[in-house]
Write a structure and sequence with these properties.
By secondary structure, the protein is mainly alpha-helical. It has one domain. It is built from seven helices and no strands. The longest helix is centred in the last third of the chain and has 66 residues. The relative contact order is 0.15. This is Tol-Pal system protein TolQ. InterPro entries: ExbB/TolQ_transport, MotA_ExbB_proton_chnl, Tol-Pal_TolQ.
Length: 234
């Protein structure tokens, strides 16, 4: 308990500049932890929804029925995200273009792929949300803490000019106060860096899965487009 009180005492007696640095680092740490938890929950839900949709998609269900189910979920207020959002964008564009008799199969397929690519880019933007902030905290917090440490040490040594006797006990409290800023900088940076690396890897995994789905779904639409044109030609 005494160590905790002495630590708080050092913070309270630090110079205003060092205290401002500490407050900034504490705020950055709190925000980064909030975003880490938020991103963790988002990625967990996105993974579960992706697996659930893939199982439903490859179960042999009619694609029109799968699209209608998505409409029902959307009407109930359920957000359509991830792979299902990509599917809906591609299927909606395919259905719209396939009704136009002047459109050939290649044009229909290209329009569907373009719609899916746009939807995939939106999903990647959602996945990457807050990652830039975590990267900034991880890269800048140690330097902000170091600035507070350097400033605090300078302040301590300036105080020696008015001291009658320069001893370690004279400058030790000021140096200790300053070093706390470096510790806070590392405390804010390390979780942010670890979380950023982890989430960036997850974004890459999701992007690869989405890209693979676009190719697989395009193959299905390719066959349907030619079958549709063959029936109309007949």
């Amino acid at each position: 308990m005494e160590e905790q009180l002495s630590l708080i005492d050092l913070i309270l007696h630090a110079s205003l500049t060092v205290q401002a640095v500490m407050a900034l680092l504490v705020m950055a740490s709190m925000l980064s932890w909030y975003m880490i938890i938020q991103r963790f929950i988002y990625f967990r839900n996105a993974r579960e929804e992706m697996y659930s949709f893939e199982e439903r998609f490859w179960s042999g269900i009619d694609l029109s029925q799968l699209y209608r189910e998505g409409n029902e979920k959307a009407s109930d207020g359920h957000a359509i995200l991830g792979m299902e959002s990509i599917f809906r964008a591609g299927f909606k564009e395919f259905s719209r273009l396939a009704q136009q008799s002047e459109m050939d199969s290649e044009a229909v397929l290209e329009g569907s792929r373009r719609a899916m690519r746009v939807a995939m880019m939106r999903e990647e933007e959602r996945l990457e949300r807050h990652l830039a902030f975590l990267a900034s905290v991880g890269s800048t917090s140690p330097y902000i803490g170091l600035f507070g440490t350097v400033w605090g040490i300078m302040h301590s040594f300036r105080g020696l000019a008015n001291a009658t006797q320069a001893t370690l006990a004279t400058v030790a409290p000021g140096i200790s106060e300053a070093l706390i800023a470096t510790a806070m900088g590392l405390f804010a940076a390390i979780p942010a860096v670890l979380a950023y690396n982890r989430f960036a890897a997850k974004v890459e995994v999701f992007s690869n899965r989405y890209d693979t789905f676009v190719d697989e779904f395009s193959s299905i639409l390719y066959r349907q487009a030619y079958a549709l044109r063959a029936r109309k030609g007949g």
